[in-house]
Amino acid sequence: MLTEPKISIITACFNHGRYIGEMLQSVYCQTFQEFEVIIVNDGSTDNTSEILSSVTNGKVTVINTKNNGPALARNIAISHAKAPVIMNLDADDKIASDLLEKAYKIFTENENAGIVHCDAECFGARVGKFEIGDYSINNMLYSNRINSQSFFKREDWEKVGGYSDELIYGMEDWDFWLLLIELGRDVIKIPESLVFYRTYKSLPESRSGRRKTDRLKARESQLIIFQRHKNLYAAYPDAIRYFSSLEDKISGENFAVRQIKNLFFKYSQKYYWKFAGKNFFKIIRKLR
């Protein structure tokens, strides 16, 4: 007799069907087996539908939709989830065999646990630790410091209204984590690299990479997040000044300056991995 799952793994998949097998295999071999997987095929235009139709494991549910973007695709997946704990796992990534076990243990031992995350290792075109920076509420106000491949409670997703489809250019993960933080939930990190993040030769090969090469779209997403979380930012004057300055700079740029900055930003991000380094990153941040 099948028991109700304790963790629902949700995946939004757009044209990454060729990686689904690797992702699922990393899930199937978990030491914690009380899970389900819900994959939303977000209007893929390649052979993803054909690949997903060949998945026969009873723990996996596939939902086919038109292309709505990752935020709505994830919300659709979670609306079908049966478990109290949700994990987002991108279609092209993988996880260590003991991740579910360690994460679920934290939720059972910490009543106020709201987000459980861990470190990540890169694989594919680039290897090494996935650098996202140290978590603190202050740091989270400037940029996301929690991997998208993390865990949260379904009831909290319901309370905050899910992932926002207002962020059509990305950063919906950052916005969602801030919503959960505003609920007063604890953010708990497993101090191990238990997520494996696929990297590509060029940023435009991934959805988030395409956004990262467009300066204005990236800045627009940042400013939307700032506006959506004004109450949280209000306690941090430096962050208020930073984003107020960003708004002024964007609105005050003339056409020529904007085009030059956009062009430099695009190519600096495109070749970021080749020239990655702290000093280079500081230069790019000045282009905000």
Short summary:
The chain has 288 residues and is an alpha/beta fold. The chain has 14 helices and nine strands.
Report on the structure:
The chain is α/β, with parallel strands linked by helices. It contains 14 helices and 9 strands. The protein has helices at 20-28, 48-53, 70-79, 99-109, 137-140, 154-160, 172-182, 207-212, 215-228, 230-233, 237-252, 255-270, 272-275, 278-285, and strands spanning 7-13, 35-42, 60-65, 85-88, 94-95, 113-124, 128-129, 151-153, 186-199. Strands 1, 2, 3, 4, 5, 6, 7, 8 and 9 form a 9-stranded mixed β-sheet that branches. The longest helix is centred in the C-terminal third of the chain and has 16 residues, at 237-252. The relative contact order is 0.12. Residues 272-288 have low confidence and may be disordered.
The fraction of residues assigned to DSSP E strands is 15-25%
The description of the largest β-sheet is: 9 strands, mixed
Assign the structural class, choosing from mainly alpha, mainly beta, alpha/beta, alpha+beta, or little secondary structure: alpha/beta
CATH class of one domain: Alpha Beta
One letter per element, helices H and strands E, the order comes to EHEHEHEEHEEHEHHEHHHHHHH
Number of strands: 9
